[in-house]
Every structure is written in C-alpha cells, then in structure tokens.
C-alpha cells in the first residue's frame, strides 16, 4: 500500500517513512504496555529499550499509538515521553480508534489495535509481550486480540499469554478461528512469566527462516489470519511457576471481589501481580519483551530479504 491509499488519520514518523520508502525491515510495537502495562518511569525506559532491541537486529521499530488526532506509526522521543507520562491515556482496541481520534485523546494501542494499524501501514511483523484472551473471571470477557488474530494477516511475536487467563479456552478460540499457534523452539504454549509446559501448540518452528516460510505458505493459500509466534521467556528470566501462579490467583480473586471488569481488568491484574511478586514479575516482563523484539526483527529481516529476492526473479 502506498501512503496515499492510507486512511487520512494515519501519520508516519520520518524514520518509519524513510524505512518504508527504502524497503527496509520494520517491526511494529504496541503501546498499551507503555500506557497501561508498566508503571512510570519503567514504561518509558522499556519503550526505548524495545526500539533499541529492534535496531540491534537490523530493523526499524515503529511504535504505534494514537496522538494529536492521528494514528501515529513510529514515535519521536518527545511523543514517546508524552505518551509515557500522560495520566489519562486511553487503551485503544479496535472499537476505540474512532473515539480517540474524534475526541483528540491520546492512547496506547493494544495487540488488536496495533495489528490493525500495522497491517494498514504495510508492516507485517509485530512484537509484544503477551496477548489478551479469555478471562477466567467472566466467561464473556474475550479480548478483541483474538478476533484480530483471526482476521488480520501479520506475524505476531509474543511470549504466549498469562495464566491469569483461561488458557484452554483461549487456545480453543484460536483453533476455532483458524489461527496457527507457533511454538518457537517449543512444543508447548508459553505462559508469559513461565516457560509453559501444559498446552500443546499447533506447530513448532525453530528459526526465523522457518517462520517466514510458514507465513508465506499460510498466506499463499489465501488464509487471512495472523501467524502467532510464541517464544518462551528466556529460562534465566522465568519466574518460579508457583510464585507466579499464586500471585495470579490472588490478583484474580481480588478483581472479582472489587468487581473490576472490561478494559480495566488486564491492567489491574498486571499491577497486582507485580506488587505481589515484589517487582519480580516486572523484571521478567521486561526481559521477555526485549527477547520478542529481537526475534521479531530477525523475522522481519528474513521476510524483507525474501521479498527483495522474489522481486528480482
Ligand atoms: N497482557 C499482558 N500485558 C499487557 C496486555 C496483555 O501480559 O500489557 C495488554 C495488551 O496490549 C493486550 C491487552 O492487547 O492488554 C488486552 O486487553 P483486553 O483483555 O482488555 O483486550
Ligand atoms: Mn476484555
């Protein structure tokens, strides 16, 4: 897609625009992790470290957010700083774009929101921490992330999902919607803070080249769904499974007691788990995010290399 075909509300940073024009590998990054996932000031540091991790692997980062009445693809340092410090940022999933744009609100895009904007902007690879899913507390609280994964063809690199979610129901939904769940170097679904040894993935792949080959085959068949690449947290960074589980159980119970629901639920659970693990969960969270950014950049490089070769043939 050329920039002229994009919705008029889209705006690119100078760096991302240049990378697009030159056909360089790009990696989209979400921003709900900045506005709602991490406390200040770690959120800003993480956002910059994510971009540095993408660059260290030879790709250009495009952090996506809604600011100044625009869907911003790539942020300047000033924009990132403002986003990280605003106290009333919106959490922007698919239904929230128009509200944020018309009301001139600033907001962080979720996995679903970032997938939507990345795909429109022609960015095929996206790195995040964990995807949303089916909540345990309310059977009808199903994240829009799952719907987006079913219908938006991008490669999403994540560390699976937290066991605060109903992982069985989440994986069943992905199966129903035809989303390939790739275990990157693993046969089982990663559970964010822990490696995850319980739920099988639909396919195991071990290299960025294999991921790109798989995505080409999947989309070459005419499939429209995402390819969900799930990379376990680095072993040295993983939380003790029992500690993580207990913190998640307690947080979940508190959420039910306080009747916290809707968009507020995931941020509440994340915050409480961090408090209950004495900050250990945040260290693990940062490590897995950076690890995913690096893998996404490697995948983006292979993808672009193949596209260039295909054009020359
Ligand atoms: N899971 C995490 N950390 C996060 C999120 C999920 O471990 O920061 C964020 C992501 O942006 C995800 C969103 O897309 O929460 C899902 O929210 P909801 O369940 O309201 O759709
Ligand atoms: Mn929800």
List the helices and strands and how they pair.
Layout: E1 10-12, H1 14-22, E2 26-29, H2 32-37, H3 42-56, E3 60-67, E4 70-73, H4 77-85, E5 90-92, H5 97-102, E6 107-109, H6 111-120, E7 125-127, H7 144-151, E8 155-158, H8 167-176, E9 181-184, E10 203-205, H9 208-220, E11 227-230, H10 241-257, H11 265-276, H12 280-312
Parallel strand pairs: 1-4, 2-3, 2-7, 5-6, 7-8, 8-11, 9-10, 9-11
Antiparallel strand pairs: 3-4, 3-6
The structure holds pseudouridine-5'-monophosphate and manganese (II) ion.
Pseudouridine-5'-monophosphate is lined by residues 30, 32-33, 37, 93, 110-111, 129-130, 132, 143-145, 162, 192, 263, 266, 270.
Taking pLDDT < 50 over at least 5 consecutive residues as the criterion, the unreliable ranges are: none
Give the CA-CA distance, first to last residue. 21 Å
Q: What helical percentage do the residues reach? A: 40-55%
Name the ligand types. pseudouridine-5'-monophosphate, manganese (II) ion
């Amino acid at each position: 897609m050329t920039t002229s075909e994009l919705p008029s509300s889209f705006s690119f940073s100078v760096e991302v625009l240049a990378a697009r024009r030159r056909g360089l590998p790009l990696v989209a990054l979400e921003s709900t992790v900045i506005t709602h996932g991490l406390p200040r000031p770690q959120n800003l540091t993480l956002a910059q470290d994510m971009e540095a991790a993408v660059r260290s692997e030879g790709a250009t980062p495009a952090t996506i957010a809604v600011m100044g009445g625009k869907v911003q693809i790539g942020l300047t340092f000033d924009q990132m700083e403002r986003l990280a410090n605003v106290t009333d940022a919106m959490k922007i999933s698919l239904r929230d774009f128009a509200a944020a744009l018309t009301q001139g609100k600033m907001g962080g895009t979720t996995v679903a929101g970032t997938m939507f904007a990345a795909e429109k902007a022609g960015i095929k690879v996206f790195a995040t921490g964990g995807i949303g899913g089916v909540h345990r507390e309310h059977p009808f609280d199903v994240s829009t992330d799952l719907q987006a994964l079913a219908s938006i063809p991008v490669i999403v690199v994540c560390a699976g999902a937290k066991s605060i979610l109903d992982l069985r129901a989440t994986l069943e939904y992905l199966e129903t919607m035809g989303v390939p769940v790739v275990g990157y170097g693993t046969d089982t679904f990663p559970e964010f803070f822990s490696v995850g040894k319980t739920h099988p993935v639909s396919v195991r792949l071990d290299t960025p080249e294999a991921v790109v080959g798989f995505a080409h085959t999947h989309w070459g068949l005419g499939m429209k769904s995402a390819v969900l690449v799930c990379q376990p947290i680095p072993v040295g960074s993983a939380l003790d499974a029992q500690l993580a589980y207990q913190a998640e159980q307690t947080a979940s119970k508190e959420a039910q007691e306080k009747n916290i629901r809707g968009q507020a639920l995931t941020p509440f659970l994340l915050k409480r788990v961090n408090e209950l693990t004495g900050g250990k969960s945040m260290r693990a969270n940062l490590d897995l995010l950076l690890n995913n950014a690096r893998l996404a950049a490697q995948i983006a490089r292979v993808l672009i290399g193949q596209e260039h070769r295909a054009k020359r043939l």
